[in-house]
Amino acid sequence: MDGLRKALFSMENNTSPGVDSLTTNFDKHFWAILCNKLGLAYNYAFETGCVTVSQQWGIISFVFKKR
Q1: Distance between CA atoms of 23 and 17, rounded to whole angstroms?
Q2: pLDDT computed for residue 47 by the predictor
Q3: What pTM did the predictor assign?
Q4: Contact present, 24 and 30 (Cβ < 8 Å)
Q5: pLDDT tens-digit profile of 4-52?
Q6: Are 26 and 34 in contact (CB under 8 A)?
Q7: For residues 3 and 38, what is the distance between their CA atoms, to the nearest angstrom?
Q8: How many CB atoms lie within 10 A of CB 24?
Q9: At 54, which helix (H) or strand (E)?
């Protein structure tokens, strides 16, 4: 779990959301509640090579940013 925590907290805040519309701020804020379930899900996917359909999706979107 420590590696997952380090990876999450090394990510920038307020970054573009994923398909669930949640930014990293959400996961960081609720880390104490989510860590066990996320850890189990990610470890299972890593060990078995099986991921859910939503984990297979990749969405690329372009966001205009002023310079």
Answers
A1: 4
A2: 94
A3: 0.66
A4: no
A5: 899 989 988 987 667 778 888 998 999 999 999 988 988 898 899 888 8
A6: no
A7: 12
A8: 18
A9: helix 53-56
